[in-house]
Each structure stands twice: as C-alpha cells, then as structure tokens.
Backbone:
C-alpha cells in the first residue's frame, strides 16, 4: 500500500471519528463520565465566567450581581451553587487586552434538556442585562458525594 493511500485512509478515518464526536456534541448525547466510588455519583459540572464591567467600562455592582443571581440563576439551579471571584483578562475582537474582576459560577447538576435551556437562558440574560460580548461556559463531569 502506498504512503499516499495510507494517508488518505487515515484522513478519512479521522474525519469519520471527528464527525461522530461533533454529532454527539450537537445532539447533547451523554458524555462518558468517570467511574465513581460509592457513595459518589457522576454529575455534570458547569462553570460560567462573568465579567464585571460593561463594554463602556462602568462596573457591575455587587448589588446588581446578587440581584442577577436571585432572579436568573437560583430559580434555575435551586439545589445550590458556588460563586468564586478573581482577576481575569481576555483579548477582545479589537485585539486589546482587557483586565477585570470575574465572577465564576460553579454548579453540579443532573444533565437534562431543562438544565441546558436554563444555562443558555442565564448566559443570554447576563449578556443582555450587562452589555457583555460573551459569558464563558466550561463543561466537565465530576464524581460528587454529599
């Protein structure tokens, strides 16, 4: 078999495998989780990173943040959540580096269509309410016990 033919087969195989992964992600197919030791169980972990300054520079106050948590986040994840705070930075579309405080929301939850819709509603509401370009979302799977 020629090198060119082997590369073609490898490329097609990689494309099929990558296409399968993309299809699973697009369909919100269950992702394999870790093997948890009892009493822990597998749960989805969500982190969302919220900037604390509007695009024109004015800060989002603690009162505004807490109001957002009370009206948008807590009703969607009433079982509990954690908020961490820390310095962050990102490069905008214009190429400039922006530094600001970030609120990092951490939630463990049971995956469902309802939870997924709630997460996207939270992100949309924050962007609209506080004039944000984005809200970063990070998903993973954890072993959790209470």
Residues:
């Amino acid at each position: 078999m020629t090198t060119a033919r082997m590369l073609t087969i490898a490329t097609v195989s990689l494309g099929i495998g990558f296409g399968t992964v993309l299809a699973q992600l697009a369909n919100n197919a269950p992702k394999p989780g870790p093997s948890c030791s009892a009493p822990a169980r597998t749960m989805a972990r969500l982190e969302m990173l919220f900037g604390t300054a509007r695009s024109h520079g004015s800060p989002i106050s603690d009162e505004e943040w807490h109001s957002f948590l009370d009206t948008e986040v807590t009703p969607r994840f009433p079982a509990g959540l954690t908020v961490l705070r820390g310095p962050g930075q990102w490069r905008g579309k214009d190429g400039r580096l922006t530094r600001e405080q970030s609120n990092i929301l951490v939630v463990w939850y049971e995956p469902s269509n309802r939870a997924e819709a709630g997460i996207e509603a939270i992100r949309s509401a924050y962007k609209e309410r506080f004039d944000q370009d984005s809200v970063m979302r990070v998903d993973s799977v954890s072993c959790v016990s209470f």
